[in-house]
Amino acid sequence: MTIEKDIIIIGAGPIGIACALECKKRHWNYVVIEKGALTNSLFNYPRNMTFFSTSEKLEIDNIPFISNHPKPNRDEALEYYRRVAISNNLPINLYETVRSIKKEDDVFSISTSKNNYSSKRVIISTGFYDIPKLLDIPGENLPKVTHYYKEAHNYAMQHVVVIGASNSAVDAALEIYRKGGYVTMVVRGEGIGERVKYWVRPDIVNRIEEGSIKAYYHSEVIKIGEHSVDIQTPDGLKTIENDYVVALTGYLPNFDLLKESGIELSDDGRKIPNYNPETMESNIEGLYLAGVICGGKETHKWFIENSRVHAELIAKHISEKTKL
Questions:
Q1: 287 burial class (0-12, 13-18, 19+ CB within 10 angstroms)?
Q2: 206 φ, ψ (degrees, to nearest 5)
Q3: Which of 70, 35, 65, 32 is nearest to 53 (CA)?
Q4: Integer-rounded Cα radius of gyration of the chain
Q5: Domains contained in the chain, number
Q6: pLDDT band with cut points at 50, 70 and 90 for residue 48
Q7: Cα-flanking dihedrals φ and ψ of residue 230, to 5°?
């Protein structure tokens, strides 16, 4: 049996929820489909993570976000978006994976792990946190290697290599160090990333300068062994003792889903999807993009505070274009 809807929203993150609220205001027949938990990306963030944005910049639909400090943490964000979704009785199907999106005769057919749907419009707001950028080196599949960081306790008294110099890598390195881990950072660039949170950057720089955290710049991990890691540095190959590798080298949107849906991606290596920034409609009529997925590989350009407006742009365009 095929379930008929006016609009299918794929992804129940903050922007997907914002799109759902816009649909609810207009009394459209819609459903949100999410392959994981509600706000799955935020759920998988480190437990002690603090947002760069202040709470009012994370609000959707002018619903107040009250936090204990100006910059909320992960748990406060989960609580906020959970309450927004539940109190508004938004129709969200969790733990349901979209397998394909096909358009025929102005109608989209959406196949998932649980159901088949048809709709006049589709909004993709799936973010980018589900597919890590792999190192493609020997040993990357060892159990000691992870591309996600949750907390530091299990790394106490262990030799840990943290790969990367972004906010997530810096947060992990500092927390593991303060929980008693022996941290070595491996960074491809010349130093700690310029986009690291301004109140954290001096901390990591000072810990490296005093030797509490070891850092190799202009360097790459080229092999991971059971009890060691090989690092190619400007001074040659170095092999260091190692118990765990936390490879925080970034994440990617689900490009396969976009391409299979017919959305064009730029061929300049950035893989930016083709969409109209004034309406958020892609090159496929009726298929819209919202949130971080609009940035392709440039995932640092979009986040909650500057993409929450996408929901209103999409709803406005649909309202002007056709009556559902």
A1: buried
A2: -65, -40
A3: 70
A4: 21
A5: 2
A6: confident
A7: -100, 125
**Residues spanned by the domain of 297:** 2-131+251-321
What is the chain's percent helix, strand, coil content, to nearest 5? Answer: 25, 25, 45
Q: Which of 248, 253, 254, 275 is nearest to 264 (CA)?
A: 275
- pLDDT for 298 beyond 90: no
pTM across the whole model: 0.90
Q: Are residues 182 and 83 in the same domain?
A: no
Any idea what the CATH number is for the domain that residue 285 is in? 3.50.50.60
- Cα–Cα distance measured from residue 168 to residue 193, given in angstroms and rounded to the nearest whole number: 11
Q: Where do the H-state alpha helices sit in the chain?
A: 14-25, 40-43, 74-87, 167-178, 201-209, 255-260, 304-307, 309-321
Q: 3-state class of 310 per DSSP?
A: helix
- Provide the pairing of β-strand 244-247 with 145-146: parallel
pLDDT of residue 127: 86
DSSP calls for 210-239: TTSSEEESS-EEEEE-SSEEEEEETTEEEE
Of how many residues is the chain composed? 324
In this structure, are 122 and 256 located in the same domain? Answer: yes
